[in-house]
Fold each of these.
Amino acid sequence: MKYIIICGPTGSGKTELAVELARHYRGEIISADSRQIYKEVNIGTAKPRPEECRGVAYHLIDFLDLARRFSAHQFAVMAADLISEIDAKGKVPFVVGGTGLYLEALTEGLFDSPEPDYAYRRHLEELAGNKGTEYLHKLLAQIDPISAARIKPNDQARLIRSLEVCKLTGQPLSAIRGRRRPAVAAKPLWIGLLPARKKLYEKINARVDKMINEGLEQEVLSLNNRQAELRQRKLVGYTEMIEYLLDKKLSRSEAIEKFKQHHRNYAKRQITWFRKVAEICWFDPEDRKFHSDVNKRCDEYLKKA
């Protein structure tokens, strides 16, 4: 069994490439995007429209209510099942997205982790806000130095989860990870998209302008009865629009500029995450040989015994 992962920062062109490859290799797409899973948010998550999918089956988008929680563990289980189903049909599974935790859970294995403790998470978020993420890193180093050595001091999400697991299980996450089981036995082909930083930021800024023009403000206002869940999700774009439209903390221009900045910051964090994955074959979408080089790499992988 074989499957192909297409990853990279937001705005790098993952969806377009995935659809092109899925059509060429007779495949189906599994989304690995932690924002596009929610049904109620469309414009600000850049959720692919049916016309963009061009007849290609696109799984794990637009299926979850905003009030529901969804973990990397749940993603890996569902994605692994879909990979098997797609492969059984004689098609190529393409896993596409920028949520590193999802892809890590799928490719490096699963372990039985406790349900989230959201009160404790909020406490740690407050600590990070007051004392910085470096403080969380020092706390983790005291109780789980192995995990602390693997996690950068500014990676707030992973620091919080590691501390949370230690609190709930009484065991360091590094010890639990050693007992994890693989989600999919097959080794995937990793394709990473990485435009030049200036070009990527230009594309991100243009994407935000497009979202505004397509009606992001109206979408946020239409979700007025879901504000509690929307605020809790802290989705980039929606948070800034809430601060402008409902909280009146920002002007419209300030909200848009803040949205662009946070979108660029998110892309930078994604790049940092994926740089750690040695298996990724990186490509610049602006390179004139981009499509032929990617197709050649896919051909080589899929033809291997």
Amino acid sequence: MKLEDAFARVPRTQYLPRHQHRFARQDVALDIGYGVTNSQPTTVRNMLRLLGVRPGHRVLDVGSGSAWTTALLAELTGPEGEVVGVERIPEVLAMGRAHLGDRYAWARLHQAKEGVLGWPAAAPYDRILVSAEATEVPADLVAQLGYDGVLVLPVHGEMLRIEKHGRYSFVPLIT
């Protein structure tokens, strides 16, 4: 499925609290409560373009929030794929589960485990999307990528796309 088709099939309005519905078409991040936002549509579109999800991919959605990105990813993977969303705030997770409903049997949402980044129990993933800013590239998430996997995340205000190509042996880098 093409990215624009996924956006057409997954209206943002359905993944927002009722009081934010009137702002759904605005290209801004919207507050969904608990210090969490539903990301700006242009940002989501750009992140998904960088991620390059294809049908059949296994995808991890870190910071699944209202489940809008989870639903978009489910559209892109199709039923032959799998999407695992992880959210740390129980109330936001409940909101995401209510929004997602049972529309995508191949997508599920989990409560993040204290001190654990991502969802290593279901690794490896073909793609990992992170919807929260990191201070550095998290090695724990890179470890959850399969070979030829792609990780997209913001680090210090810059959007990074990291590709994993396999194992190699090198001498240590010394500064």
Amino acid sequence: MQVAALFCVGVWLASSQLGHGQALVAVGAIDLKGNSIMTDSFDSSAPDYPGYWTSSIRKAGGDVVTLSSLTNFNIGNASVAGHVRTGSGGSISLGPSGSVGDLAWVDAFTPGVELGWSSDDAHIAIRNVVIPTVPWTVAPGSGSATVYYYTGTNITATNLHSFSHVITSPGNYTINNSGDIYVGTNCTVNLWVLSSAGTFAPNYLYEAGRGTNAARVTCYVDCTNCTLGTSDSAQGWLAQNMVFLGTTNCTSLKYSGNGDFTAALYFPQANFQLSGGGSGIVDFIGCSVTKTVQFNGHYHFHFDEALAQKGLPMPLFPDLPSNCSALVVVRT
């Protein structure tokens, strides 16, 4: 749990932007092109969470934020169940069917921005990713492992898959290729994709287990290009179990899946492109922080509010004026 307070000229201020409490954050341009694009939120840590995403737990916390003061913030015809924010003096543009507001507003396909659901007060300091100074070892080699496919809480299929790396012990591992990766049950793993890999685009980054037995992966992407898909996501619908962090070397992030994806993405120097999209209602669970973001297709983007409670994928702090100081207390 993250607790924080701000002090500014002797006045106590509360801030909702100390943790990552937004679905989509971009330093610069946001362009939501395509049809059937929507954002909302839910809370996987709530007592009534059924263990999988369903429309009955939707909330209007699917905020979309650019830190830019420019006008290149295009909502298009998307339905944003949440707030939209820009930097000081910024503005947004909407298509004829674009809708921003609470659930009642967007579910009624009300065009435009509901009163009180847009602002130009986005002042967030985004930190670059630094590789931890810990002992790193080369990831284990190839092998085969069983992959399970889930729909909600039900197993729909199993398959034996060949992986370039089969990791069954917790630890810190380096990766120098784009091969498929298996992480075993109960394993908490840090992966460092070295810059020499050039492009990181595994067909599978698979986490075994569900619930308290689920694997947990933090992947530091230190190469130029990163492409993710629906098979590179956390089992059990918990984005906190799959966190991708892009260093300053990573300038291109793509998602080309046509199915359900669950992860938290933090790539402050990368242009993020989402292409494809299918006819599902889940599509993308988690959050993203990137340099820019562009949608090109159908996407439903569900922000998991539990990420903000844990300060994931990376703590974000308000960009304070020079006459302010910040005291941040972090508890886990």
Amino acid sequence: MLLKTIAISILLLLAMVGVSQTPSPPEARAGFRLRVRVGQGNKATGVPRKRFFLIRGSMEDNKALLDNLPNQPVLSRECYYRSKGASEALIAWLRENDCESVYCGEVAQKSIDGADAVPEFQRAVSAGEKEFGSRELARKWITVNLPNELRSGFYKLQQQRLQAALTQAQGKVTSVMTDRNGNGYFTDLEPGTYVISNILPIESANSSLLWTCSITVQPGDLATERTFLISNPGNKDPKDVRNIKCPSLEKPLPVCDSTAK
């Protein structure tokens, strides 16, 4: 009888140990598709190659960061490059390609030899041809012979401002770059409350656009199924108007100092 009692006790103890060591199931992860479209009137288009940030926590949790964003000075691309003495042709090239720096795409031959040739590109190719012994190679490596301020100065300045702002975020920060259609996918997220923002305003026509949006991610949300559309107040595109979750804060771009060099 005593042995039977001991055996039963041992079995119960082993069962308790087994239960206590059973791992709990992992928390379900989730995601969503961010869609960024802007326009005026009945026609809108996706916003490509723009970075958006997802910050864990509520708007109140990140109040120190979010309260400062609308008041930050807007430095337009045009004003920066004018202040560095860029030619009208280079400013037009950056505007046409929606680029913050010359690294955003390959410089085509027409921008060197055509009617719309950019003087800075022409000088860089001439210097590169002497260095590399090939005009085509000089074109492909054109950035090597551009001044630092024109090559990546604006991008670096924006990155400094961005990093300074993100130090005020209270929660974990992740980011995505929108594709050519204005889509970005946030995946492998813990369910909960988040803030979406571009932190630094982006330029659209003659305006700057800043988004600060709250989103709640639910268990089971899939990036392939759930879309979070953000846009500007002027977008009345019938495909979008009923689905816009967050309109941007829109401000006019500053007027550049035409005498700055």
